[in-house]
Amino acid sequence: MYLETLLRSAKDRTVRVLLMGAGEYGMSFLAQASRTPGLQVVAVYARHVERGVAACRHAGRPADAIRICDNLAAAQAALTAGKVVVSDDPLMLMQLPVDIVVESTGAPDAAAVHAEAALTRGKHVAMVSKEPDSVVGPLFHRRAKAAGLVYTPVDGDQPSLLMQLVVWARVLGLEILCAGKTSEYDFVYDPAAKRVTSLDRVADGAAVDVLWEFGARDVRSVLQARADALTAIPQHTVPDLVEMGLVANATGLAPDVPAFHAPIARTPEIADVLVPTEMGGILHGTGRVDVVNSLRRPDEAGFAGGVFVVVRCEDKKTWEVLRAKGHVVSRSGEAAMIYRPSHLLGVESATTVLSAVLHGRSSGPDDMQPRFDVVGRTNKPLTAGIVLEATGHHHQIDGIDGLLVPARAATGANPIPFYLMAGNRLLRNVPAGTVITAEMVAPPPASVLWRLRREMEAMFGLV
C-alpha cells in the first residue's frame, strides 16, 4: 500500500519545509505538520512577521522556540539551535537547507518569484497558490522535471484531489462524462424561513420549495428557474474557473462552455445534470469539467469544497446494485457520480510534501500542458486608466467576469490571462461584453510572472 510505504519512509528521514504564507492554509498546514511523523516546518515567510509568529504559536511552538531573523547568518544560527525561523525576506529564506518550499501566499507575482527561486536552488515546490499556477504552471513543471525536482499541486486542495480522482477513474476504465468540484460554500435552503444562504449572502428562497425536485420537468428548465430565483448569490467565481483550469491542463478534459454552467443542484441530482443533452443533461459532449453550486437543507451533509466525476454506467446491472447501496446513480441508470465530499486544506497536505521529497512523486499527473487560460470579460463599461485590482475572497476584478478558454500567447489582440491583467492599468475604454486582450493592458515595468509567461509561450509554441 503506497501510503504505508510513505509512512515507513518518513520514519527514516525528516523532511524540512519552508512555508511561504501564514494565512488559513498556512496555519492549518503548520499546525498539522507538528503532528506529522517525518515532517518539520523549519522556516516561515510572512509579509508581516507577527502573523508568522502567531501561526507558529497556534501550532504549539513556545515563544522561545521562534526566532525572527532578517539576515542569513542569524537564520542559520537559529536553525542550528533548533528554532523555527520567521522572516519577511523570502529570498533569504530560500538559502536555508530545506527540502521543499510550500508556496501558499496567493500573490501571483510574488508566488512566481518564490517558485522560480526554489527550483533554481534545487528545492522541490508544492504550489498551493493557484494564481501563478494558472498562468505559468506548465513551465514550472517542465523546469522541475529537467532538474530532477518535483513541482506539484497539493493534497488538501481541490485540483490535486480531482486530478487523482480522474486518473483513478481512467485506470478502472470508466468513461468520464464530467469531472468537477463544488463551489466553496453550499447554497443552504431553510424551508421554514424560506431563504437560501451561502456564506454571508442571502437570497429569497420562496421559489425553492417547488424547485426542490425535478419531478417530471425538464432538468434544464428547473436549473434555470433556480438560477433566476437565487441571483442575489454569486453563482460563478474566478477561483472556481482557475481550479478547474488547472485540472483541464493536467488531464485534457475541457470546459463545456467558457463560463461554466455552474448549476445549482442537489448532490443526488448531479448524475442527471452533468451528462450530455442526449442523456437528459446540460452538456454538449463528454470529457468535460464544470462546477456545481451545491444546494442542500441545513440538516443535510455538506458538499462544499468536494470533488467528483460523473461516469457512464456501461454495466447497468452492477450500477443498480450500487444504487441500492446508496451510490448516486442517475434516474435513467446511464450515469453515476463518484465523489469525495470535502478537502481539508493543510491538514492533509503531508501526503504531497512527503511524496515529493521522499519518493520524487507529484500529486498530479505527469503531463501538464498549457491547454487553457482563465481570461476576463467585462460585465459593464470600463474606462481607460483604471487599475484592474483583484480583491476579496473570490479575487474578483470589479466589472470583469471569468472565462476558461484555449490558451494563446498573451500578446496583441489575444485574451490576457486573468492574473496577468490583475493589478495593472487599463489603456483604453472598454464596453460591456468585451474580452480583455493583451493590448488593452499596460504591462508592469518589471514582472517575473510576465517574463515567465513569455518563456512558457515560447517553450510550448503558443501563438
Structural write-up:
This protein has helices at 2-12, 24-33, 49-58, 72-80, 90-93, 108-120, 130-146, 158-172, 208-211, 219-229, 238-251, 270-273, 316-324, 350-359, 418-421, 448-460, and strands at 15-20, 39-45, 66-68, 84-87, 100-103, 124-127, 151-152, 176-182, 187-190, 195-198, 201-204, 254-255, 264-265, 288-296, 307-312, 328-329, 335-340, 372-378, 390-391, 396-397, 400-406. By secondary structure, the protein is of the alpha/beta class. It contains 16 helices and 21 strands. Helix 1 packs across helix 14. Strand 5 (100-103), helix 6 (108-120) and strand 6 (124-127) form a beta-alpha-beta unit. The model has no long low-confidence stretch (mean pLDDT 96). The protein starts with a helix and ends with a helix.
